[in-house]
Design goal:
The complex is a heterotrimer of chains A (350), B (141) and C (385). With 350 residues, chain A is α/β, with parallel strands linked by helices. Chain A has twelve helices and 14 strands. Chain B has one domain (4-129). Chain B has a five-stranded antiparallel β-sheet. A three-stranded antiparallel β-sheet of chain B has the order 2-1-3. In chain B, a hairpin with a 6-residue loop joins β1 and β2. The chains are: A alpha/beta (350), B mainly beta (141), C alpha/beta (385).
């Protein structure tokens, strides 16, 4: 089941982005109640009035380009995975490519698979580079998620993401040992066309959706690679709330320490297509050469992509060419629910 | 619907791309056909690094039509590291924290939207330089 | 080149003319000026106006007003230079008479700003700036001036209160001008407590949005006494330009177009700033009043506000400015303003300025500025007794 390209591929640059504003979960609780059994996150990130998926993807991609140290016009693909596109029809990728200076000789497209749109693009980019069709491809997983007011997801629906430039293994700061997908038709969460907010299946999003797909993808990949949890320095899972990845990680046999470096959900919420990818960028920020990192995404609908990365010496020199993930996480400006309602344009003005 | 005027200047808006005069070396933003310093033709593209400092600023409380959603916001004249002044909004900052001389860096943000069914116009704004752990560590060492 | 004189003036009270249209405002001022000169039909009409297209969806404005004034058939053209449109139209009129193209020329400045709501008017005024590199960033015209004021305060070490003298003088003078919009005095205390509209510019540092129209009639100076017992000679008419965008200037705190147009005007008139008896300057914002005084040689750089603080700008002071209220208190119907300034200067030189009369006034200077100093148009007028 494992997928490997004919030429070995790795990450040559990566970059994160998280907006400045934070909505504490107590603020949502103050308005809508809830929280008797604790909140699903401590707070979540909120984009400013002038931010959207496109602007966040641009900043993450610029950071990735700085780390890679390549010229923007060497990119042959700029792919953005998101479920919160600025335009329903018109690629985000073209705007990001133009901002980077990667146009015109590049592919540009948007990918959609709920919260695993970003890793979907990552896997495809590994294939594109691995087939030697191109030398470098950029992917981003970014979202500015909308939670319906009063819904459980309003506590967690955050904003942010990360971008990666894939290239030949010999130039990489972490190379991919193999990846694997696990996909079924599971309607746990969706948003119909023209609807503003998604619908979700409550507890149905748990065992048959998140847990089953994550655990099976991870288990299968480790088995085929002949790896066990102890071989990994860090395990990064999709993070819809703080409980799910902790529980899934434990079930897979990972310790809390192995999960810690890639766990951001309590501080920034669920960045949807950006969630597992920004977890990976946080993990790379702290990784040492030789570390193994397991990345497993989850997207509703439903599926998981699992990747096994090995960090190289190049990480040390490239890490500080761009802001660290926690530089953004620490830059926090708490807002109240009213400001949040304004920033997320939840008031109908017309 | 106004599309072409925004499309035409995408490199300026998204990349802060100007020009350098090949006669006198003046760095120009925005780009123009004739160098205002030496009046010779200017045509060599030059990408500005996006770093600068606040030269002056003001907070707009009464926004023009099309910008009401963003108000109040702070606009500034930013002195780019390479020389020119540019007019742009400051973002990710409270108006009370702005001061002349503040170091800022370019980011790409939404400038305005041409209505709910129209184009979203992106362009440069400036924010306070992101505080970075690596920079703090360097300073300590 | 022939010398040119003003032989008739007319003006409409500045304000919010809800029941008068753009064309009627213009026609009324024009007809008043023609009546003052005793002329039925001029050879040409030049109309200064900035916003008829954006706010009124009306171009070919001069033709329309000519027709509405009973002058169908004459040469009629609109002249545009943003807030300096009025003086720009006068400049064209002066050239037409001085060059011998026409003998009797009517020049009208007219603006109707209240037909659209505030956001529309704010956006329309921004068309005076660089749309692609200033306007797109959500700058308002006020905020561009605020950028100048903030920098000036910092660089020159001048506090915001130092600017109070300008609006206080303007309001004091407007009390006695029946055509002014704000005919009430302003106290220092009220100025200090005023709300910010684009800090550091407060409500009283900025001229109002309003409607107005004013007109003058020109003829060759040697024929002036056929029409007027107290004609006024146009001793200088000078235009200069700078970059439209503030950010394109080497030194934004020096209004180089203002300096250049004033210098040319002094040379044309053969006098210097010390001989000017009154100066109708372009106080659209308090900061522009200070910068204009400096650029025209009335104050050293950084000292413009000191004249106002020392009370030297009143009608009986050393350097009277804005003698009928200025843009601040008479009002600033943008394209009309340049002509109001000339009408008021003419009243001063005719000795008909009432309580605000500058004693023994012989030389008056008017200066109309487009944008934030992009276009500067200076006229020097001399009373002919």
């Amino acid at each position: 089941m494992i997928m490997r390209p004919s030429r070995e591929v790795g990450i040559v640059g990566y970059g994160a982005y998280v907006p400045r504003y934070r909505l504490p979960a107590e603020e949502v609780g103050r308005i809508w109640g809830g929280g008797q059994a604790g909140y699903p996150v401590r707070e979540k990130s909120v984009p400013g009035l002038d931010e959207d998926t496109t602007t966040m993807a641009i900043e993450a991609a610029r950071n990735a380009l700085r780390r890679a140290g390549i010229a923007a016009d060497e990119l042959r693909a700029v792919w953005v995975g998101t479920e919160s596109k600025t335009y329903a029809v018109k690629p985000t990728g073209t705007i990001v490519a133009e901002a980077l200076g990667a146009t015109p000789h590049t592919q540009a497209a948007d990918w959609e698979f709920a919260c695993k749109a970003g890793t979907e693009a990552l896997q495809a980019a590994i294939g594109l580079v691995g087939s030697e069709m191109v030398r470098y491809a950029l992917i981003a997983g970014v979202d500015a998620a909308q939670g319906r007011p009063g819904d459980a997801l309003e506590f967690t629906a955050g904003a942010g993401g990360a971008a990666y430039i894939l290239g030949p293994r010999e130039e990489s700061l972490a190379y991919c040992e193999g990846s694997l997908s696990y996909v079924t038709d599971t309607p746990d969460f969706f948003r119909r066309a023209h609807e503003r907010y998604p619908s979700h299946g409550g507890r149905f999003t748990g065992e048959p959706a998140y847990f089953r797909h994550i655990e099976r993808a991870a288990t299968q990949l480790m088995q085929e690679l002949g790896r066990k949890p102890a071989d990994y320095a860090t395990c990064v899972l999709h993070q819809p709330n703080s409980k799910f990845p902790a529980r899934a990680g434990k079930a897979l046999g990972f310790t809390a320490e192995q999960l810690a470096a890639g766990m951001l959900v309590s501080d920034i919420g669920n960045c949807y297509a950006g969630s597992s990818l920004i977890g990976l960028s946080a993990a790379l920020d702290r990784a040492r050469p030789g570390d193994r990192i397991l990345l497993v995404s989850f997207g509703s609908g439903a599926g998981s992509d699992a990747f096994s990365f090995v960090v190289t010496e190049a990480i040390e020199e490239r890490r500080n060419r761009a802001p660290l993930t926690w530089d953004y996480v620490r830059r926090r400006h708490p807002i109240d629910y009213g400001t949040y309602v304004r920033y997320r344009q939840k008031l109908r003005m017309h | 619907m106004r599309l072409a005027p925004h499309w035409r200047v995408r490199a300026q808006r998204l990349q802060l791309r100007g020009e350098v005069c090949q006669c006198c070396g003046e760095r120009l933003f925005p780009p123009r056909d004739v160098c205002p310093a030496c009046h010779q033709p200017a045509d060599k593209p030059f990408a500005f690094c996006g770093e600068g400092t606040v030269y002056s600023f003001s907070t707009v409380y009464e926004a023009p039509k099309g910008y009401e959603r963003f108000g109040p916001y702070t606009i500034a004249l930013v002195r780019l590291k390479e020389g020119p002044l540019v007019t742009a909004q400051l973002t990710d900052i409270d108006p009370a924290d702005v001061r002349i001389g503040l170091p800022v860096e370019m980011v790409t943000r939404v400038l305005r939207e041409e209505g709910e069914d129209g184009m979203v116009i992106y362009g440069y704004k400036f924010r306070p330089v992101l505080e970075r752990e690596a920079a703090r560590e360097e300073a300590r060492a | 080149m022939r010398d040119v004189s003003i032989i008739g003036i007319g003006q409409i009270e500045v304000g919010e003319h809800w029941d008068v249209s753009l064309r009627d405002l213009g026609a009324r001022a024009l007809l008043a000026a023609l009546a003052d000169a005793g002329i039925d039909r001029p050879d040409a009409l030049y109309v200064g106006n900035m916003l008829s297209g954006t706010l009124g969806s009306q171009e070919q404005l001069a033709t329309l007003i000519a027709d509405w004034s009973g002058l169908r058939g004459i040469e009629a053209l609109k002249v545009e230079a943003a807030c300096a449109s009025g003086a720009a139209a006068l400049r064209v009129g002066v050239m037409a008479v001085a060059g011998g193209t026409h003998d009797i020329v009517a020049v009208l400045g007219v603006e109707k700003m209240t037909d659209m709501d505030g956001e529309e008017a704010t956006a329309a005024l921004m068309t005076a700036a660089d749309a692609e590199y200033e306007g797109i960033h959500g700058t308002s015209f006020i905020s561009l001036n605020a950028l100048l004021m903030r920098r000036y305060m910092e660089e020159m070490g001048v506090p915001q209160e130092a600017f109070a003298g300008f609006p206080i003088n303007a309001h004091a003078n407007a009390v006695n001008n029946p055509n002014a919009m704000f005919r009430q005095a302003l106290s220092r205390d009220t100025y200090t407590r005023a709300p910010m509209i684009a800090d550091p510019i407060n409500l009283f540092d900025s001229a109002p949005i309003c409607d107005g129209a004013a007109a003058v009639i020109l003829c060759p100076a040697d024929r002036a006494r056929e029409f007027s017992s107290r004609p006024v000679r146009i001793a200088a008419s000078a235009v200069a330009t700078d970059s439209v965008a503030l950010h394109d200037r080497r030194d934004p705190l020096f209004l180089s177009a203002v300096h250049a147009s004033a210098s040319k005007a002094y040379r044309q008139a053969g006098i210097g700033p010390e001989e000017i008896d009154l100066f109708e300057l372009h106080d659209a914002f308090s900061i522009i009043a200070a910068l204009s005084l400096e650029a025209c040689g009335f104050a050293p750089r950084g000292q413009g506000t000191r004249l106002a603080a020392d009370g030297e700008i009143g009608p009986r002071g050393r350097m009277p400015i804005c003698t009928m209220g200025g843009l601040k208190a008479r009002g600033h119907p943008v394209g009309a303003t340049g002509i109001y300034q000339v009408v008021e200067a003419t009243l001063q030189l005719r000795g008909l300025a009432g309580a605000n009369q500058v004693p023994g006034a012989r030389w008056a200077m008017t200066q109309n500025i487009g944008g934030v100093g992009g276009t500067a148009i200076t006229h020097i007028l001399e009373g002919q007794g």
